[in-house]
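Section 3.1 - Work completed
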Amino acid sequence: MKQIIILTILLLECHFGWTQIDSNPNHTKGQEVSSILKSLVENGCPGASLAILDEDGWWLQSEGLSNIEEQQKIEDTFLHYLQSVAKTYMAVAILKLYEEGKLQLEDPITQYLAPEVSNMVDRADEITIKMLLNHTSGVPEYNFNPEYASTLLQHPETAFEAVDYIKFIDGKKLNFEPGSRYSYRNTNYVLLSLIADGITGDHGTYIEESIFKPLGLQHTYYRISDKKIWKEELSSSYWDRYSDGVLENISHIQKQNVTYMVGDDGIVTTTSEAILFLKGLLEGKLLKQSTMELMMTWVNNQEGKPAYGLGLGHGDVFGHPYYGHSGGGIGAGCELRYFPETNRYMFIAINIGTVTYSPLHMKLEELRNKLFLAMTE
């Protein structure tokens, strides 16, 4: 019996991936960011989780509630919605296929998409894979379609397939000439997921095998379902429906929405594993150096500043540069950043929606900027 118990424990450790990451109690940023995180909660954010990794090691901290109704505290091990940060994972998958010689970045997307999908995209033969990756395609935004928004909110059980999102732009003209400028569009990454499906048969499995497993990400999930994340605690989600500062639990709609999103969204993970992904990427554990140079070839925004590479964002905080990506949803928001000047990684997740206006956001944004500034010093 003793041997059976020991074997069971070993199997559980293998399955659950009990990897302990401890905060350095003497981390130089600990006291400063702790104060900021507590202020976020005091100013209306239900819960917030933060991870930092730099030369002082790890700092993990969670404040506030995962679930207001049950007064459940948020913990460092909880899962959070990555939202659009998932685009970086999708881009890595496409770039790995490029490295394997299974696609070329300058090829037109019609070479890889089924005709019925290509026919829904205006001037698809003039759009390249690279244009999808760096948002210079001119393809319209699918979630600007009122029908999509009403379906999501009124019928959250709707099981979307990737092609269903593309149907929302069927018959719509391009917003601008392909390759002429940068304009962020979620549709680009849904199309990339369809391209990857055509090559791999299942781009979700390809992402798991080529990204999650090599980096040892045992608490990162794509195309989520209750069956996949049954052993994990996923933070609840809230939004300010009427922009009056009153929060409502929108967990069901948030989860249903993310369950069916592909390419542009669809990943949940812990704060530490979000950092381990970006760190692994920037340290060359996923892509060749020459491919990373392509990924970090920036296109400029309307202000003429470098904004986006091939699935990776570029920006600055008070003149200090960072690389990474942000994500926002109806019931969650997050930011994944690497600050090269301080060699510091940071990921923060909050469980309040960031894509609709709330008067709460003004103070939260102020505190966010204060946090970012702390990361550059």
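Second construct:
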Amino acid sequence: MPQTRIFDVTDLDATAALAARLAQRLRRGDIIALHGTLGVGKTSFARALIQTLLAEAGIVDEVPSPTFSLVQQYFLRPFTIWHFDFYRIDDPAEAYELGIEEAFAEGVSLIEWPERIAPLLPEACLEIHISTDAPMSGRRRFEFRIPEIWEARLADI
């Protein structure tokens, strides 16, 4: 049974700070499933995480949403970040055409709308459920469902 940790944030800066703390703990092969309703902040969280890693590499770049392209890649060392948005796919098999196998094996995968590819997600996936009671405010609740393989890395987040 995964451990659960809850983080309540009050604004976008606090969301970015939480994403930055997670970014510091990532390793090749990590898969992060971002759950939540439309507009709850999945892309904002992913964007902040990616921007943290880009900044550490000395790269200043925009981090667009993969809503229309379905996937964005960021080539960093020691891994490539794959940011997927599966809102518009109907069949999990479509993820193979987007490079999901390579992403899982060699990169760090950030997945929005992971329920669309649920059969493909491994048990070792870090699931983050994002919710809010006030969509126009910055308040968000991040519920991390932490599989055992992640517990030591996320103990002090």
